Amino acid sequence: MMEILDENEIEELSFHHQKYLDIFENESYPDIKLKSTSISLKDVDRLIEAYVLLNKKSWMKAVKDVERILFQESNYIHSLSYWKQDILDKKQALLDFIYFSTTTTCFMLRYMMTFQRQELKRKFKNGPIKILCGKSQFSRRERLGDCLRVR
Fold it and tell me: pTM of the predicted model, to two decimals?
């Protein structure tokens, strides 16, 4: 539902975002506030996507929440990672977005180019950035054509 709402429909976006969080915390993972809980890749992606869609008018407002989910929330146990090694060249790093939705992939690319540029330069030795995308159970048929467009 959040995907089809216009970025100016703030009240509707907030309502659906809160509904998703309620389902996530109270039904899908009811113990997550009390103890460390393993979260499926699909649910981590959906959680990130919910924050990104809530802030679709200004993607940078989602940064704090996404960083908390990925790097700081100690009760969120997940294996979602975007840094991989090329299987053909063990010295070559890859950005692997196979398990990310299109919305999350676009956000992560913006995030990395804005906040982790030095890390990208270091990992890719100032060379070309190699990105792995593809069809998986989380992929959608949306185009990534405007993914890096600055708004």
Answer: 0.77
